[in-house]
Each structure stands twice: as C-alpha cells, then as structure tokens.
Amino acid sequence: MSDDFSGFSKRSKMDPEDYYLSPEGYFVFTEKYHLKRGYCCKSGCKHCPYGFNKKTSTIEKK
To answer: What average pLDDT score do residues 20-39 get?
Structure first.
C-alpha cells in the first residue's frame, strides 16, 4: 500500500525554486512557492510573503 496523503509524491512536478531541504531533511517552501499558491495557510511559514504573525494569529502588512 503506497498511499501518499501528504501530496509530496507530486514534488517532481514542482519547480526546484519552490522548495529546498533543510539540514534536518524538512521541506521548506520558498516565497516564490507561496506566491504561486496564492493564499496564506496561517502556519507561520519561514518565507511567508503575506506577513502572518503566528504569535498574534494576524496577517500584518509588510
């Protein structure tokens, strides 16, 4: 059984500029990827171009 509920098996269709692997092996999405996606997921992403503040749970203008 090879159910991939995370969707990362589709990463071959992603541009190499959309993400990189951290030293710990995590996927880190770039600002370019977030802008292509078109909305803020409100997860406190490292490269969030929308200005989401995880501490206050608000989107602040940049």
So the answer is: 92
Q: Report the C-alpha gap between 61 and 43 in whole angstroms.
A: 17
pTM over 0.85: no
| E strand segments, 1-62 | 19-21, 27-29, 52-53, 58-59
Q: Would you put residue 44 in left (φ > 0), alpha (ψ -120 to 50) or beta?
A: left
Task: Please count the CA atoms within 13 angstroms of the CA of 24 that sit on its side-chain side.
Answer: 3
CB 19 within 8 A of CB 28: yes
DSSP 8-state code for residue 17: G
